[in-house]
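In this supplementary section we document a worked example of the pipeline. Step one takes a protein sequence of length 179 as its only input; no multiple sequence alignment statistics are reported here. Step two produces a three-dimensional model, which step three serialises into C-alpha cells for compact storage. The input and output of this example are shown verbatim.
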Amino acid sequence: MILAAGFLLTEIRCDDGDSADPSTGDPQNGKATFRIEDGETATCFFVFTRFEQECLCPEEGRWRVSNHTGSMVCTGAMNMTVPLTASNSSGTLEILDDCATIIGSGMSDGEADIEVHLQEDCSYKGSVGGSQDGIPMVIDFTMEIQDSEWITGNLHSEVSQQGMNCIMSRTFELEFVGQ
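The serialised model returned by step three reads:
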C-alpha cells in the first residue's frame, strides 16, 4: 500500500498476548484483522517506510515521445492483425505528490492527459479512456523510470465490439528535452 506522502506500508505487527487465535496484519492490502477473545487486549502497529529514495523521479518539463512499432490483433467475426507504425511527438510531464503521481499532457494530438501512479515496485501505472474511430477503449500504461531523463514503457488495450476482440500493444520511450 502506497501513501501519497511517499511512504510505503511495509509491515503490520499485531500483539494480543498468548491468544489461541492471534490478530494478524496484511500490509499488501493495508488491513489488520483483530481476533479478540474475552478479556483480551490487542494492539497492532502499522510500520511505514519512506520509499522515495529507492524510486527514481523524472524531471518535470518537456519530453520527446517515441512510440515503437506495435500491433493490434483482432479475433472473432474476422481475424486480422493491423501493424501500428512508429511515431514521434512531444509533451510535458508534471510531477505531483512527491513523485507519487505523474501527469503527461500533449503526448499525442487529440489525446487525453495521462495520469500514472507510483507502484510498490517503483513502476508507474495508469489508464486513459477515449475512442478510436467511434469505438470506446481504455489504454493501460506502465512506465519504468530508467533515470531522471529517460523513461521506457508499454501501452496495452483490449476492446470487444460487434463480435470482435482486439488487443493492441506497443512499447514507447520518453526522453527529457528541457524545461
